[in-house]
Amino acid sequence: MAPFKDEHILLIQPGSGTTLAQLGLPEAYTPAKHRFPTRMFPAEKPGEYEPHRIRKVTTKVPAPSTTSNEPPKEDVEMKDAANGATAEGNPAGQDASGNTEKTEEETVEETYYEEDVFSEEGAVYPIQDGRIVNREALFALLQHIYNLLSPPLHTPIVIVAQPIWSVEDRNEITRFVFEHLSAPAFSYVDAAFAAIYGLGVKDALVVDVGKTKADVTAVVDYQIQRRTRSASILGLGGDSMTDRLLELLGSKGFTREMCEQLKRSDITEILPPGTPLPASASQTAHQGAPPAAPATDSTGNPSAPTEGATENNGDNDEGVLDVAAIVSGNTLEYLANMEKDKSSNKKAGADPKQPKLPNSQKSTASFQFEEFVEIDDETAPGGAKRYKRNTREITVGVERFLAATPLEWARGLISRGILEDIAAQINYVINGVDASRRSDLWNSLAIVGAGSKVQGFTQALLAVCQEKFILAPSASFFTSEIPSTFSTPLPTGGTNTPAPMAQGQGQPGPMFHPAAHGVNPLLVAATHNNPGMPLAPGTPGMDPNIQQRSSGHVQAPNSVKTLKFPEYFSEFKDNGNRNAPGASSGPGSTSHGSHGHEEAIFLGAQIAAKIFFVVDQGQSKSFMSRTEYNELGPEGMREYAF
């Protein structure tokens, strides 16, 4: 088989809300270049799907002229008029009496179809909660992506598989890729495995926070621990935070789209447990001031929707000259008045500019809400819908800090909040791993997924884990292994109990150290053990043949850390505004904006694809070729999927 090229590899990562796709591997790995909504719309023909909603539009148009459709008449021989009279006909459009005929213009109904790229009415979502619920719609989406990117024939395909996918789902996708997309080679890569490839580690606890669910997977020595894997845990995704914001702000006129954009904005932040809210929060609640009031200008009037334009305050006019006043010839007078105004403001005690407070200390903050508004266009043919983009500034109170709190109906019953629920799943998965590797996993958390992109999510989750499951360093030796030289603790005894001495020495044994008077002997054993010291053969409960050191590992963790993202992937740094008005860019368009560490899975998929098809070239059975598919069928994919 001819080697594959970097620019011919097609990567697809299906998700519940968005599907990432990219054709070709760049020299410097970047976030996905194309993003498609994971939805399809039923077509006119049953069983087929379209990427956008198709609307049937009926309009009336003038009827076509009947004269143009008549066949040409034969030539007629002209003869002289009788009696020398000239044949003069009536002018067109007049009858014999000379009156003008009044004819009504005939119209006919014409039907055509148009795409409505903004509507979600009637949409079919093939992936819900990570599960494939409609394979035909998913195959139509894959076909649409393939046709839009238009790859060459010699293009291998890599699909990032969700952990909840069944074996039958994987087999059917394999069949579709080879039989309908005619791929020369195909491979799966597990989402958790792609994450450790992107982070460049072999051990990690991968927490993938998606749209409506979360997956928690332990990877030890490149091996996925499937026995304790928690896949597709419902209610722990980004939508749960949107639902909470809608519950808090719905009574103030917020819609779900407004709450979704608020969640993605820079002003929404998840504070660690115990962090106090801004001081004016209680005052705002008692006064009943709506935190979602539109921004107002200096006159107190609500600001109208803008097209991205901004207005300058009077505070920002310092240093700006009035050109009209200078041109009019009053230059000296104008400059003198400016200096006079400056000095008068200083004498009046004008407040200097206050230092900028961090977001967590502001009781209110504003974000830009962007929406598409339907406009009435009478000139549009057949009543076709047209939209315009409107932007307005909305101010929100301390509700923006409560996105991770549990919903009112679920509080204390089935949920303690998204952070505590994820922390409980992390603890469950780690406890199912070998005891000697648990501490390594606690120090190797990889928190990925679009749901974790909310500001402060990772730090707050670490704080919850530290509070719930991590022991303080001062208490760690109480849970450490007791040195194996002591099998059973001995009673401290009274003053008449002789202390056995070490053989050949005049020092008491470690169990009878002078510091042990009135102290728990287990604590003395843990703090004063010296494995190199010879033991007294007559000491009860001690085996002189046992000379082992403590392994030193701790059963209960005493620290929790996240993995550091590689710095050399500059395109994946978190920078810029995360607010994606209008639910990001249009479907299938080139990706813009900030996409950082939460997309470590797609980064790892690029690295894995490079190794599979370019470096390894199938020697380790990392992908299935068409020849092997013809021999084994889709069931043989389990032997090749990495």
TrEMBL record:
UniProt-listed InterPro entries: Actin, ATPase_NBD
Superkingdom classification of source: Eukaryota
Signal peptide: none
Composition skew (Acidic residues), residue ranges: 103-113
Gene3D superfamilies (UniProt xref): 3.30.420.40, 3.90.640.60
Biased composition (Low complexity): 580-593
SUPFAM superfamilies given in the database record: Actin-like ATPase domain
Basic and acidic residues bias spans: 71-80, 340-354
Compositionally biased intervals (Polar residues): 296-313
SMART domains, alphabetized: ACTIN
Region of interest called Disordered, as start-end residue ranges on this chain: 41-113, 267-319, 340-362, 571-596
Stated family: Belongs to the actin family.
Name of protein: Actin-like ATPase domain-containing protein
Source organism (scientific name): Penicillium hetheringtonii
